[in-house]
Amino acid sequence: MGQALYRKHRPKSLGEVVGQEHITDTLKQALAKGRISHAYLFTGPRGVGKTSIARILAHEINNLPYTDDSAHLDIIEIDAASNRRIDEIRELRDKVYVAPTSAKYKVYIIDEVHMLTREAFNALLKTLEEPPQHAVFILATTDAHKLPDTIVSRTQRFNFRPVEKSKVVAHLQQIAKQEKIKVSDSALELLAEHGEGSFRDSISLLDQASSRGQALEVDDIQQLLGIPPQPALQAVIQLLSGGSSVDLSQQLSQLYDQGYQAAAVAKQLGQLLREQVIGGQSAIAPDVALALLARLIAVPAAHDPERFLEICLLQSLQTPITTQEAPQAPQAAPAKPASVKAAVADVETPAKPKPGSAALDASLWPQLLGALKKKHNTLYGVVRMAEPSFDEDGSLTLSFAFAFHKKRLDEVANRQTVAAIVEELTGQPVTIVCVLDKTAKPSKTPVLLPEEPPTQDLSAISNIFGAAELLES
Fold it and tell me: In this structure, are residues 4 and 204 in contact, taking their beta carbons and an 8 Å threshold?
């Protein structure tokens, strides 16, 4: 079985460590002067070299050569995540006073030390307060804020940083050359960017990508990492500046149908939008772009990331979300009444449309959309993407071009809501059927919003004057 690249290319000395020179230089000077501390604390994000440097330091303290296969009785590694109880630390405390077998110092490397229990920390504190001369502790953690101050104050603390992107790229180039991996520089830059300053993550991604057995380009890395292509993201931004809500929703659905996760879309969209805002090349207003950037950060943690991202984008749409209403017939100018009383008597209140009077055919569609828009605006945004078909058996078939919209209406509560509104409009029960049809196109029928009853101006006048007769002069 082959060895993982990140293990194969681990540094073997403090001089080989890349990206943490502010730490390695200090440690090398201390070792040269023979100033060995009894306890070190290494903190920082994952994959930046905390454990590797701890192992190197443990060997260099004892003037021992270090390799991946190095194993010495006086260098003890403890995983605090699986040895977190007080009993394990008490056992360590008892053994620490035993002299080293052959080395000058007995070194204890405790990884993920923040996982220890409170009682275990108290037991460790006793040892750190009065350590034997031959004992050295190296504590490593990604969450230093979880450590008691009493522990931190008894150590020399070294804060590890995420490695600069340029240094990660240079290191990946060196590994690719040694391993004879054909990969473009732009692809390595993408790997380094996705590694977020972690050597281990970046090298692991290179190892995974190299298994394809072919020259690696940016498209290959994007496919591996699930990163949406930049042209598709740029299309979303362009639609924000002057597109319609329908086109924007369709573009987003296409990304989902291609397998891209909402969190990945939001992250890459945010990066692209940020670069455009900083460079003064944003297609949308800067204030709108900044507000959208703030909302995109919350997408991965949302209960429904896909729906949340769609809402974020629709809120940033710079063209109004409009719906066409059915044109009203021009009204003839009313004849001048002989008296207010006569005019009041002649005006009839328009009859309200009777519930259950609509037919179950194509004429129902604008009424259904109007009722949904007024009562369930979120659901309206889904249903309007369907192509309706009214069947003779009393069912309404809604064809969606994208699985995302079909999935929403397949939810029992949403389907029941639509069925209830149709029954309210037609007076008869109906079955809602949802199908996926890539050729389906949303109906362009104007939305017919329910009309509010007109204000009865003449009735109000009559009430004010007590229905007195006012004659013309």
Answer: yes
At the topology level, CATH places domain 165-225 in Helicase, Ruva Protein; domain 3 (1.10.8)
Single pTM value for the model: 0.62
H or E segment to which residue 458 belongs: helix 457-465
For the segment 31-57, the average pLDDT, to the nearest whole number, is 92
Is the separation of the CB atoms in 266 and 237 below 8 Å? no
Question: What angle in degrees, to the nearest 10, is found between the helix axes of 245-257 and 305-315?
Answer: 150
What are the CA-CA distances from residue 408 to residues 383, 405, 431 (Å)?
9, 5, 17
Minimal CA–CA distance to 408: which of 383, 433, 384? 383
User: For the chain, what are the domain ranges?
Assistant: 5-159, 165-225, 230-315, 364-436
The class (CATH top level) of 364-436 is alpha beta
Q: What is the CATH number of domain 5-159?
A: 3.40.50.300
User: pLDDT digit string (tens) for 120-150?
Assistant: 888 888 888 888 899 999 999 999 999 999 9
Q: How many Å is the maximal CA-CA distance in the chain?
A: 125
Cα–Cα distance list, 431 to 24, 70, 87, 137, 391 (Å): 71, 71, 65, 71, 10
270-322 per-position pLDDT tens digit: 988 898 888 888 778 888 888 888 889 989 888 888 989 988 888 887 655 54
User: What does the DSSP assignment read for 311-355?
Assistant: HHHHHT-SS------PPPPPPPPPPPPSBHHHHHHH--PPPPPPT
Whole-number pLDDT of residue 145: 92
Note whether 206 and 176 are within 8 A (CB): yes
The domains spanning 5-159 and 364-436 adopt the same CATH topology: no
Helix axes of 165-179 and 185-195: crossing angle, nearest 10 degrees: 120
Q: In whole angstroms, what is the distance from residue 234 CA to residue 356 CA?
A: 47
